[in-house]
Amino acid sequence: MRISINKIILTIILGIATVVPIVAFSPHFASTEFEKMNALETQVLWGIDADNIYDNIKVLSKTPRVAGTAQENKAVAYIKKQFESYGYESEVQSFHFNSYTPPQTLTLSIKGYSQRLQPIAFEYSVNGDISGEIVAAGLGKMEDINKLDLKGKIALIQRGEITFADKISNATAKGAIGVIIYNQESDTINASLGDTTKTSVPAVFLTKEEGDDLISHLKKNPGSIGQLNIKGASFNQNTSHNVIAIKKPVKLNNSTNNIIVIGAHHDSVAGAPGANDDASGTAMTLELARVLRNISSDTEIRFVTFGAEELGLLGSSHYVESLSEDEKNRIVANFNLDMVGSKNAGNLILQTIDGKPNLVTDLSQEASEKLNGEPTPFNQGERSDHVSFAEAGIPAALFIHHPTEEWYHTPQDTIDKISKSKLQDVAEIVGLAILNQIVSENQSSK
């Protein structure tokens, strides 16, 4: 487990705080603002324990935690119990969503085409058995679609620039009876339309290699007829949950009434135990709640774990939508922890939806520079729960290691792949960043 230089320096300054904690935290010793700040830093940094985070990951990742299942319910009960063991009152916030059962039958064939295709059904694609001419439709943008005759035909569209749902909507508006979308990169993805309202025609997804080869075939054989059959897909209303614990503020004379939200999603994809994605972020949220519980602050701190992130950020979207306008205006920062502990992932980065800095990146870079000698870099990214906050005008950033590990969204995302040193590093950066903010606000309230 990493022990930062900052920890060692603070321990020396405070008279070996871990050996003589009564001196380090006595009112007499912390008589100046400098000494008080150092004492608080030591309290937070030495309080964070990667073993605690690891142990909670181990419990949470015994089975997959797909939203709306008994396994998710069990995880929710465990998270709630952990919050309460730290002295918090916790709330379970329920919300409904439409769950999707994948098709039992899925075939795609093209007359005169010898290559075997292995299409993937889009999550939320509808059933259908159709036949029609396949027409290449570029990226499926309106400028690509407008010049084409797609009535009664199947549109072949490349991934990129606009959403899958928008591509399908554009094609069906021109009369397409089905859509095939192929990848623009040689990677694997979970192909989802977001919800049940996004398409009225059957749609499937192909790899880049399959799509490129099919485009070549169509150039040589215009008018090729495709047969697409999707059968057995179904939709059901289901329920998922967010778990919320709140650290109430200490009211000072000129309290800011600000709120900080620390969060992670507790659900996983089907078949994946989700140790890193995202039991790691959930367990880190729990540990930060434990460590920060005794830090006096006039800033309210909310610890939230979200359900159904893997189905389209549903839990965080519901949480943000449930906030009053006053609450939204008072939330100054959202720290989103997603995939923060894998041994084989790359380095820590921060991501904002526009790639621009905000209060979260500023605080975190300051903390990481102090702890590790250099600021954590940030870039643009919008594939996790920080998006729900940012779209409501709240400063938000994702903490994630990049590139992701090779077992992302697979059965191999297990506890043995977790790095305690990475857990310790991220938790310290977030803990120190939050501490710096609440101390700054405390001072401004005096």
Describe what you observe in this structure:
The longest helix is centred in the C-terminal third of the chain and has 25 residues, at 420-444. The protein folds into 3 domains: 1-46, no CATH class; 48-99 and 237-444, Aminopeptidase; 103-232, Glucose Oxidase, domain 1. The strands form 2 sheets. An 8-stranded mixed β-sheet has the order 1-9-11-10-12-15-13-14, with helices on both faces. A 7-stranded mixed β-sheet has the order 2-8-4-5-6-7-3, sandwiched between helices. With 446 residues, the chain is an alpha/beta fold. The protein is elongated. It contains 14 helices and 15 strands. Helix content is 36%, strand content 23%. α4 crosses α9 (275-292). α7 (164-173) links the parallel β5 (154-158) and β6. It starts with a helix and ends with a helix. It has helices spanning 5-13, 21-24, 33-47, 50-60, 70-85, 142-145, 164-173, 208-220, 275-292, 314-322, 325-330, 359-372, 386-390, 420-444, and strands at residues 90-101, 105-110, 120-121, 128-136, 154-158, 178-182, 203-206, 225-231, 234-247, 259-265, 300-306, 331-337, 347-352, 378-380, 396-402.
What distinguishing features does this structure have?
single chain, 446 residues, alpha/beta, Aminopeptidase, Glucose Oxidase, domain 1, 8-stranded mixed sheet, 7-stranded mixed sheet, 14 helices, 15 strands, 36% helix, 23% strand, elongated
